[in-house]
Amino acid sequence: MRPPAEGQPLDWRRVAAAxxxxxxxxxxxxxxxxxxxxxxxxxxxxxxxPEVVVVAAETQTAGRxxxxxxxxxTPPGTSIAVSLLLRPPLPxxxxxxLGMAAGVAATVAIRETAGVDAGLKWPNDVVVSEGKLGxxxxxxxxxxxxxxxxxxxxxxxxxxxxxxxxxxLDGALPPATLLDMAGRSISREDLLIALLRQxxxxxxxxxxxNGGEVWRRYRDALTILGRPVRLHGGGAPVDGVAxxxxxxxxxxxxxxxxxxxxxxxxxxxxxx
Length: 272
Prior knowledge:
By secondary structure, the chain is of the alpha+beta class.
């Protein structure tokens, strides 16, 4: 199968103008190509860049998934590949809420711009109709007991088909795209503007100490709660019912024995 066709470059000036005055619109970097937008944001952090920098690329040559998963494919001009360099006044234990905020912002932006009812699969997948529409990767650097910086990477499949992505993705969920789900092309500018506006509001809530709002909205967006799942966390798989997600992002499973077990990390698949 041939690789997906290229799309039109992002109108970055329009995005910048729409975000003027927002916290997440202060410093915008747009690249034709990058190994990974997270890599670019990390280099900017090492060079002393202040909060906040938004890095977007038309294509990534080595976009990566969480925990060593297969690279995230970003054909030129077809998708959203964006990373935010943040210096949040949060304790390290609160870092999972950045991923929660990004996930919630993505689902809201998708509904607003594409009319597609997207949800979240714990911990960091953006899903629709049991297909993976996108993912979130949060990386950080700590100094003593404080966060030096955090990078929130967001990738979304937009104007390409899932059939074209099939040979390139390796994961528990089949790929999904907004082009397939909405039945039409979606303005990447509108989607990115909506995404960053939503994230701006949620990040402000975190900065003000209102992490509870972010957690509740993340919980409401999860598609696995109350459903039987299999969790893969490095050891033997664990079966149970996804009962709850804690405010710090851990998943609570109800085991067949009736006991509850808490998992801070891992991946889940639905069981029939």
